[in-house]
Amino acid sequence: MSWLNGAKRSLLRRTRTPESPFRPDISGRRNQVAKTGTALKLAGVAGLMAFQVAMSGQAPTSLKDAYQGCFLVGAALNPAQFSGKDAREAALVKAQFNSISPENILKWEVVHPKPDTYNFALADQYVDFGLKNHMFIIGHTLVWHSQTPKWVFEDEQGNPLSRTSLLKRLHDHIQTVVGRYKGKVNAWDVVNEALNEDGTLRQSPWMKIIGEDYIEKAFEYVHEADPQAQLNYNDYSLENDAKRKGALKLVEALKAKGVPINGVGLQDHVHMDWPTLNEIDTTISEFGKLGMKVMITELDVDVLPQVTSSQTADVSLNVAADPKLNPYPNGLPDSVQQALAKRYGDLFATYAKHCGVVTRVTLWGVTDKNSWKNDWPVKGRTSYPLLFDRSGQPKPAFNAVIEAAPKKVSSISGLF
Ligand code: XIL
C-alpha cells in the first residue's frame, strides 16, 4: 500500500476538537511519510531514486488528489448536482472535490422563508450527498444582509424589530438550522460580508437594529448549537488594504473577547489582474498570524470586461447588458484561455505556499455553464470563470492547477 493511499485515508479522517475543529488531519500522512522515509534511508540512494521516478510517473488526475495533505478542494453546488438530477455533474463533483458548499439552499430566504416555515428538503439532500461521499460539508450562510427576507427585521405591523426580538429571532434560526445539522455540517460561514470597502462595519439591518455585537452574538449562538463546528467570517475584497485592515481589527477584537471564531474566508471572486499574488500572499499571512485558518471560499476568475472601477462581489449590483461587455459569446480565443490557465496556476501556487494555514480552496460552481458569473454583474453574458467547460471537460486552467500542486516527491526528500 503506497503512502499516497494512506494520505488519502488520513485526509478524510478528520480531527474534531474545539481547538482545531475539523482540520484535515495530515498528521497521519506525516507519520506515514516518516515511516516511508526510514524505509527509504535503509534502502539507500538507489532505492530513493527508484522511488522518486515511480512517484513522478503518477500525475494526479483530480484536484482533491493533487492537493492531498495541503488543503481540501471544494465546489459550490446547486440542487441538480447534489440531487443527482444532473448525473454528469454529480459524477464530476465526486471525482474531483472533497468539500462542498451550498450555492443558495442554506441562505435564509430558502431555508426559512416565512416566520413559521422552514424548508429543509433541499438542505437535507445537500447534507446527505456530502455525508455519502465523505466530504467536508460547508454551511453558507447564517447572517447576511442579502438573500434574507424583509420580515426578519420587522414586527407583525411592519415596524423595525427591537434589538431583543431580532437577537431572539437570530438565536431561534441558528438553533433550528445549525442544530439540525449538528455533527454533519463541518464548518459554517457564520457572518457574511459585514464590512464596507473602507473597512468600517456595513450599516446592514443587523448592525442598525442590534449594534456591532451582532457579530459576536452570531458566533456564540452557532458555537452553542454545535460546539464542534468550525466557525468562519466570510467576505470579499479582503486583499484590498483598507478592507483587510478592518477585517484584521474585527478578528482581533473578537479574539480578545474570547468569541469562538476559527477562520476567515476570502471569497476570491477575482479578475485577471486583481488581486495581485502579492496581495493574496500578504492577506493569508496576516490572518494566519492572528491564528486564523484561511479558506478560499468562492473562487472564480473573470476574463470578461470589468464593469465597475472597484472590485466588488456585491450581489445587488446589476449593470445593463451590452454586446461590448460580452466579447466571447461563442468560445474563448486561445490566447485568453492560456492566460486564464496561467492565472489559475499562479493562484493555486500562491495558496499552496500556505498549506496548513489555507485549509480549503472552494470554487464557486462546477462548470462554466451554471456559474453565477453568467448573470452577475451583467445578465446573460457568456462567462468562463471555472475549471470545467460547459460540457464538463477540464479546461487548460484545470491542468495548470494540477501542475501547480506541491510535488509530493520534494516534500518527501525534504525530510532527509
Ligand atoms: C450568489 C449565487 O451564486 C447566486 O446564484 C445568487 O443569485 C446570488 O448569490 N457572495 C456570496 C455568495 O457569499 O452567496 C453569492 O452567491 C456570491 C457572492
Describe the protein's architecture and organization.
By secondary structure, the protein is of the alpha/beta class. The protein has a single domain (61-406), classed as Glycosidases (TIM Barrel). 42% of the residues lie in helices and 14% in strands. The strands form 2 sheets. The protein has an 8-stranded parallel barrel with strand order 3-4-5-6-7-8-10-11, surrounded by 5 helices. Strands 1-2 form a two-stranded antiparallel ribbon. Helix 12 (277-289) runs parallel beside helix 13 (334-352). It is globular and about 55 Å long. Mean pLDDT is 87; it is low at 1-56 and 409-416.
What are the salient characteristics of this protein?
alpha/beta; TIM Barrel; 8-stranded parallel β-barrel; 15 helices; disordered N terminus; binds (3S,4R)-3-hydroxy-2-oxopiperidin-4-yl beta-D-xylopyranoside
Topology (SSEs and partners):
Elements: H1 3-12, E1 15-16, E2 21-23, H2 27-56, H3 63-66, E3 72-77, H4 79-83, H5 87-96, E4 99-102, H6 108-111, H7 121-132, E5 136-143, H8 163-180, E6 187-192, H9 205-210, H10 214-225, E7 230-235, H11 241-256, E8 263-266, E9 269-271, H12 277-289, E10 293-302, H13 334-352, E11 358-363, H14 396-403, H15 408-413
Parallel strand pairs: 3-4, 3-11, 4-5, 5-6, 6-7, 7-8, 8-10, 9-10, 10-11
Antiparallel strand pairs: 1-2
Helix pairs in contact: 1-2, 8-10, 12-13, 13-14
The protein binds (3S,4R)-3-hydroxy-2-oxopiperidin-4-yl beta-D-xylopyranoside.
(3S,4R)-3-hydroxy-2-oxopiperidin-4-yl beta-D-xylopyranoside binds at residues 103-104, 192, 267, 298, 313, 315, 372.
